[in-house]
Write a structure and sequence with these properties.
Blueprint: H1 16-34, H2 42-66
Helix pairs in contact: 1-2
């Protein structure tokens, strides 16, 4: 029987819905702080969400390449 290869942690980026919700909250907070009228400028929200999506994918790929094997004993 062939020995199984060691398992590694697998990192996943947040889902699009989570990123859009976070981007919306950030844009609302910034608009309140600056006293701007329209906190939900969809171009800003979508632009920030897209940036966060790209950055989180890059980070997840990096973490997956760098992950070490999991301990079989669960320690």
């Amino acid at each position: 029987m062939k020995p199984s290869s060691p398992q590694h942690k697998h990192y996943l980026p947040p889902g699009r819905d989570q990123l859009v919700a976070y981007a919306r909250a950030v844009c609302e907070g910034l608009a309140r702080r600056r006293g701007e009228g329209d906190p939900l400028d969809l171009d800003r929200v979508n632009g920030l969400a897209h940036f966060l999506e790209v950055a989180s994918r890059i980070q997840a790929k990096h973490l997956n390449r760098m992950s070490e094997p999991l301990d079989d004993e669960g320690e």
